[in-house]
Give the backbone structure.
Amino acid sequence: MIDYKKHLISEKNTIKNALELLSGVGIETILFAVNDKQELIGSITDGDVRRGLLKGLTLEDEINKIIHLNPKFIRKETYSLDEVKALRDNNFKVITIVNKDNKIVNILNFRLMNSYLPVDTVVMAGGLGSRLKPLTDSVPKPLLKIGDKTIIDYNIDRLRKFGVDDFWISVRYLGEQIEEHFKNGESRGVKIEYIHETTPLGTIGAVGQITDFRHDHVLVTNSDILTNLDYEDFFLDFIEKDADMSVLTIPFDVDIPYAVMETKENRVLSFIEKPTYTYYSNGGIYLIKKSILKKIPKNEFFNSTDLMEKLIKENLKIISYPMRQYWLDIGKPKDFAKAQEDIKHIKF
């Protein structure tokens, strides 16, 4: 992931300093100038340097003479996905993310990232992984390796590709290993906080412990899923349908080898020849309006299905998002073996 601090330069630096920094940022030859308070002032590219030198400036002149003022940026606390899409569609490649104080907190790089979704993400990683013993005797299931990466790394990296940078990870069994693996997330360009389950809280109960979500929408995902889900399309579908909760669902087709008849009092009313019925199972990934999360009880065992039942009873809107890409729940040894083979062929 991109280290945004490599792209920052003080407005008091010289053009020579700018050239040195530009040579070290690789293909993304752009810098963002900041003042003493680390507030965004403007941007500098190779082209700005060249134009300045052609006008007679020297390498010892300060960069404030070549800074491009009023660069495009995204406000962390208030941006929308439409704003992100507009920048992407207009072929902007690198955009700064600034907070309410106008300080740079990250960089959106469209060469490395598909989007910048305005969601918080909770990764549920506290389970025992009992069905995968003895592999999980000394290692928590999320840290088991598929190919050269851990299962949870695939999840974090995929979400990061869609711009998610605010994470909570719920831990319990061998949770200290997961905390040591990620620490605070800074090395990966994200912010990670931890929820510690002292007793099992079910598949979504730990989410009720969080009171400081930064966005209006929260994505909750199991940590033992291997998927290349298009998270932007998942989010857009959720917003377009104005849902309170969206559930990723996995379609299963059941083929009936005979004609199925509709009858009433032994009278045949109609029949369908060898029909196929499609059923949808829970895929373990959810998008939820933040306001809905207050319905999760504090410090109680509570599953995602409990939340769904509660919303259905209250006539709130739950929608299904049928999975169209790769998805695998790594729950059993045969799933773990399948993942090891699939990872050689599936692009994440």
About this structure: Residues 151-161 form the longest helix (11 residues). The helical segments are 15-22, 46-54, 81-89, 151-161, 175-182, 231-240, 304-313, 333-342. The mean pLDDT is 93. The two ends are 15 Å apart (CA to CA).
